[in-house]
Specification:
It comes from Caenorhabditis briggsae. The structure is a single chain. Strands 3-2-1-4-5 form a five-stranded mixed β-sheet, with helices on both faces. It is globular, with a radius of gyration of 15 Å. Helix 1 packs parallel to helix 3. By secondary structure, it is α/β, with parallel strands linked by helices.
């Protein structure tokens, strides 16, 4: 299977990854990766903002990818991920959480605000081969500060 970097309409496909270790502990760590593919030779990887969880890392990756697309004047993007946790969180009714202490609401709000300006499709995919290719590319271009 060929890795897809552009959809049928010419929209760039961005692959995101989120990882964490020791969630809920004082020494928890979380980071994310974004691969724009060969069309845009830009690979981004960094430590997640805020609480160190896999979900937070994935939400951070979405925010960063959307911001990058907006700054580069890319009219729309498709963001692909493999996380069931993220898929469930994105489908959750956010209106019932307005007064809750959900630690990720700031990122959900930021994503929604940007998505009102820039068309973004966020898709869960099981295309493991595509993620293997993107993960290998990220591994080969890992920034020095990335130490997870």
């Amino acid at each position: 299977m060929q890795t897809e970097w552009v959809d049928a309409f010419g929209t760039p496909i961005v692959y995101i990854f989120g990882v964490s270790s020791d969630e809920g502990k004082a020494d928890a760590r979380a980071g994310y990766g974004i691969d724009w593919g060969p069309v845009k030779s830009k690979k981004i990887g960094a430590v997640a903002f805020g609480e160190k969880t896999e979900l937070r890392a994935l939400l951070t990756a979405i925010c960063v990818a959307i911001d990058e697309a907006s700054e580069c004047k890319i009219p729309s993007i498709v963001i692909r991920h493999r996380s069931r946790k993220l898929d469930e969180a994105l489908k959750r009714d956010r209106s019932s959480l307005e007064n809750s202490k959900d630690n990720d609401e700031d990122l959900f709000a930021a994503i929604q605000e940007i998505m009102n300006i820039l068309p973004v499709s966020i898709e869960r995919t099981n295309a493991i081969r595509m993620f293997d290719v993107a993960a290998q590319r990220a591994k080969n271009h890992r920034p020095a500060f990335y130490s997870m």
